[in-house]
Structures are given as structure tokens and as C-alpha cells.
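BUG: 3D viewer hangs when loading the predicted structure for this chain

Environment: internal workstation, default settings.
Expected: structure renders.
Actual: progress bar stalls at 90%.

Input used:
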Amino acid sequence: MIRKKLIEKEFGSQKDFRWRSHEISRIEGLSDGVFAFAVTLLVVSLEVPKTFSELAATMRGFGAFAISFALLFMIWFIQFKFFRRYGLQDTITVCLNGILLFVVLFYVYPLKFLFSYLVNVLSGGHGEVRLANGNVEAMVEGNQMATLMLIFGLGYVAVFGVFILLHLHAYRKRFVLALNELELFDTRNSIQESALNVSIGLVSISLVLFGGRYAPLSGPSYMLVGVVLTIHGMIMGKSRRRLEEVVTAAEPQISD
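C-alpha cells produced before the viewer hung:
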């Protein structure tokens, strides 16, 4: 199991954040099964192509699959780090994780459809698809794109909203978990990163609902994610280094 191998290699660990869980819990086992099923649903076709034309059609879906897979892996990795860092398995954690898994499964097809359409258009296509009966139809018509972006935005906000609640729950349990100053800082940083993602999702949703002629910007607005998180990471990185210096200076020095 990939989670077990990553645990053994301490993949994603930080020297200043102690891992409180080194075993795979039942909730993580269920989560891995759900994520694996979601990836299976992303696969273009479960059958081996019988002709080159079928192979070419399958390969055209590779771009959308790669992007969707990357997003699912990012969500999985954030969840992976959460359980390694805090090791929580209480009722609130189980419920919030269940909501996360529900959202992931529910939004697999909208996610795949959206990026299939975008890859088709950006690669020079006309946003059309050939149906089983041979007819060619537009993948999106009229104001359906706005509805599609609204669906995507709601899923995006839901995922990162759950991560906010999970990390807030861990922060409330900071005394039980005995989080040190650096771990508290990183927990607050995780909350802020998820909150920024939620904010960008809400901007996109607002453009769809109230943007009027600016509604087409609801999709490109997600380009803010890279810019905003990079700036946030630089600011928080400097703050963390200053905190590290303070913590190191406060530690008792061992004399010879």
C-alpha cells in the first residue's frame, strides 16, 4: 500500500513537526479505497483499444486525466499529512473525513468533464464530442459553462472547507496533542492556506452568480491560487524562520 511505504520513508515529514501516527488506521484504509475508486472512475477506458483509432481517442483524454489525477493526489496528500501529524481518530475527525470522501467521489465526473472540455478547446478542438451513435454534439452549450463552473466551485470550496475544519479541530486539541510553538505555527499556516483556497473558490462562484459580463472570468480566477499561495508561502516562510531562531535561542544550552 502506497500510504504504508510513504510512512516508512517518512515522506512529507518535517524535522520540526513530530509525527503522532506511524500506523495506518481503519479510517485511512477506507480513505485509500475511496481515492483508488475515484482514480478508477477517472480512467478514460477500462478496455484495451482494439484499433489505432480507439487508441488515439483514448490518448486524447490523457491531459484531462493527468490534471484530474494531480488534483486528487494533492487532496490525498494533504489528508495523508494531517493524519501523520495529528493522529486523530475521534468522532469529529471521522465525520469530517467522511464528508471529504463524499465530496471527492461526487465530484469525480464533473472534474473529469470540466478538464476534458478545457483540454479539448485549448488543444485546438471545438469543444465537441462524438457520441456512440456517431452524432457530434457540443460538450457545453449556452450558459451551461457558468453552471459547470458553479458546480466546480462548490466542490472546490467544500474540499478546502473540510480541511479548514480538520485543522481547526486539531488546533483546538493542541494541549492534548502537546503541540509545540512551531507545530502550532504550521497548523495555523495550514488553516490559512485552506482558507485562501476557499476564498478563491468563493470569488469564482461570485463571478458566476453576480459577475454579469465578468462571469467568464470565473474559470481564470483559479490562476490566483498559484500567485496567492506563493506570496503567502514566502511571508509565512520568513515568519517561521524567525520563530525557529527564537525557539532555538530559548532552548537550554548544554555546556561541555
